[in-house]
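Risk register update: the risk that structure generation would not scale has been downgraded. Supporting records follow, first protein first.
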Amino acid sequence: MWFDSWADILRILLVGAASYITLVVLLRLSGKRTLGQLNVFDFVVTVALGSTLATIFLSTDVSWAEGATALALLAGLQLLVALVSARRPRARRFFTSEPALLLADGRIREDALRRNRLTESEVRQAVRMQGTGDLSRIRAVVLETNGTLSVITADAYGDGSALENVRGHDRPAAHREDTGPDE
């Protein structure tokens, strides 16, 4: 229970170090997106990478080559999903959630809170953390695809074009596309 053999310890040191280096190289090759703030899909891939690395470290049934192949497969699949998501909006919606408007013009949107399983106090906390104590001075609070809350004050709102593609946001008339020749 406390000690099996020096060979097992040596294997962990050698295979573990090689696996760690392999993972770092793969993450560097797969790009910054893999290491950025996580959406749900990125989180799953990260957990899978960690689990695979732990298996390589501790299981004598898994060789370094098998483990490196598994790590490369996960990194490659994550890269493929990122490439497809960047080029195909429908695929992006499948792999990532869309941002949601939780507060508009100082008013909390209860329906959006329920749909996203958030509380009013979480929105108020995000506003306070932004250094604002008055909800009426907030134009929008958006739940981003990575789970963070973005707070946009009235002073910083501008034309609101950054809110395009946010669920629950109606584009201002100046930014809507024409619907016909009579308008």
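Supporting record for the second protein:
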Amino acid sequence: MAISKYKTLSQAKDSFSKSDYKNALEKFAAVLQNFPNSKEAYNGVILAEMAMSGEGGAEALFDYYEILKEEDKEQADIIMSNILQNMDGSLEKLREVFAEPLRDRLEYEDGILYKDFKAIIDSGESFKETFENIMFSTKVIITQREDFIDFLDNLIEHDFAEMALSYLENALSVYPSDKLLRKLLKKLAKGTKIEN
């Protein structure tokens, strides 16, 4: 049965605004199943999942997304996709999720929050070893700008230059004039010159 894309998106956003993330996720997912190319529904699913897993940044990102859409809807979808990809690492996993029943999808969780990852490091574990251990099995979920900067800094410090560069390029495409990101890019450039 076909659904009304705009009506369902509107209901999803309404549910999200009322902190009913489960219902918002179901509505966004329904739109995505009927309209697989809807970036708005795709981003909505990710934001609803983030909110359901208790990540603090989801509501703020949702509000930011709504403001961006008032200015330029298409550009807003692109900007939000870029932000979410930077935070999440690999969103391809979400494609697999949509092959699963909705009930399973609502319980879908496969990541470690940066603060939890940081707690492991702070307990005396090596950043490089810990990151290498989780890199292929899970993703580090970053919701705070400071954490993202700290994560990039650690990647540079521990010889993950290529990975840091790809994160930085994505982030700079969204925030081209961010001073801290530019500073990290310079640090990265210096580090790679020494190696060559």
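Residues 8-106 form one domain. On this basis the risk owner (M.S.) recommends closing the item.
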